[in-house]
Predict the structure.
Amino acid sequence: MKRLLSKALMVCSLFTLLTGCEVVKWKTDHDNTALHEDGFTKHTLALKEGGKLSYWEGGKGEPLLLLHGFGGTAAATWKAEMLELSQDYRVIAPDLYP
């Protein structure tokens, strides 16, 4: 019984490690779909210094800029807030990663 439990734990751990990227992709797709369904659009701005800046924009009213911290994306960090605040503001949330 102990050996069977050990094997089951090893299989579950391996499965988690191998599918981790798929979970992140699923979360990203889910966040993006939710924002699109609520009227947000994703834009890309070419910077004159070189490179590009992607940002989400949605809602009506006075503009409100949401900046996320190190790592992640605007959608992953602010999705719930973006959906709520877009009822009263034009929300702009850039993706601040290279």
Remarks:
- The helical segments are 2-37, 74-85.
- The CA atoms of residues 3 and 54 lie 50 Å apart.
- The mean pLDDT is 85.
- Residues 2-37 form the longest helix (36 residues).
